[in-house]
Amino acid sequence: MKLLFNKSLYSKTAIREAIKGFEDFARLKLKTEGKYFVVEGEPLASEVETEDLEGEFCNYCLGMVVAERGQKT
Amino acid sequence: MARTGKTARKATKKVETSDGWLRFKVSKKFYSKDALYGTAYVFLDRCYVHLDVADEGHYVVAIRPKPEFTKLDLNALAGEFENELINEEMRIKLAKETMDLRTKIVGTAIAQSMPLPSEEKPSSAPEVPDFKDLPPEVVKILQEEGEDLDFLEDPLGIAVPWEEKYGKGEKGGDKK
User: Fold this and answer.
1) DSSP result, A15-58
2) In the list A39, B11, B147, B163, which could disulfide-bond B30, CB 3.0-4.6 Å?
């Protein structure tokens, strides 16, 4: 599982929070590659669909970013 | 109508449908980042949403229905996304336009609800009973009673001390 998050759209704090929130479902690591934050890892349980986990992780990150922006305004 | 259609095509352009994800571009010229986030947030319950930047002038939105919503048509979802983008953009524009007015209304409401220093009652003033929750006929009776009541009057002589009333010698069982 490898996900790219553009730095101009996603904040590092939001992604870190998301990784923390997914601790029980996947072992994930955050890296930086150019314009992107890269999240790599594997699901902890084999019965979890990687594609669904990726999607849920994307949504979680987006939710965190929206919440972050809501607090600032 | 034709002009609107052209504008819509320029604002968002379908890119591809692969691996279950529908990707399409959204013009930065027409839609702000806040509108994009707001729209994406609306779709989080039905779809997986991922945002990216295509080039200097476009964002890329990738959406895929969640397992429980696989029957949803991807193109219809994309159309709905575009409509919601317009909705969000309009909401943001209106919020900006009316911000001063809303601040003024709330400010005025708060200011009016606060008592002015000159209107405050002095602490020594007698308290006026609050009858607002009572039925009008009860209020009328209470007000009439209130007007008649005079605590300085003592027709039964209750306030007169024993000594003054009967004299010192009559106190207790001494007189018997």
Assistant:
1) HHHHHHHTTTTEEEEEEEETTEEEEEEEESSTTS-HHHHHHHHH
2) B11
Q: What is the pTM of this model?
A: 0.66
> Rounded CA gap, B1 and B7, in Å?
10
Could you give the angle at the alpha carbon of B68 between the alpha carbons of B65 and B70, nearest 5°? 45
Are A14 and A55 in contact, with CB atoms under 8 Å apart?
no
Say yes or no: B69 contacts chain A, CB-CB below 8 A. no
Contact criterion met (CB < 8 Å) for A9 and B33 = yes
Contact A63 B34 (CB under 8 A): no
- Tell me the two tokens of residue B30: 């027409």
| Residue pLDDT tens, chain B, 176 long | 444 444 444 556 565 566 788 999 999 999 999 999 999 999 999 999 999 999 999 999 999 999 998 888 888 888 999 999 999 999 999 999 999 999 989 888 888 888 777 665 555 655 666 677 777 877 787 777 766 666 677 777 888 888 887 876 655 544 44
Q: Does B72 touch chain A (CB under 8 A)?
A: no
Q: Does domain B6-96 have CATH number 3.30.70?
A: yes
Among A60, A61, A29, A28, CA closest to A44: A28
Q: Where are the domains of chain B?
A: 6-96
**Across the interface, which of A49, A58, A69 has its CB nearest the CB of B49?**
A58
Rg (CA), chain B: 39
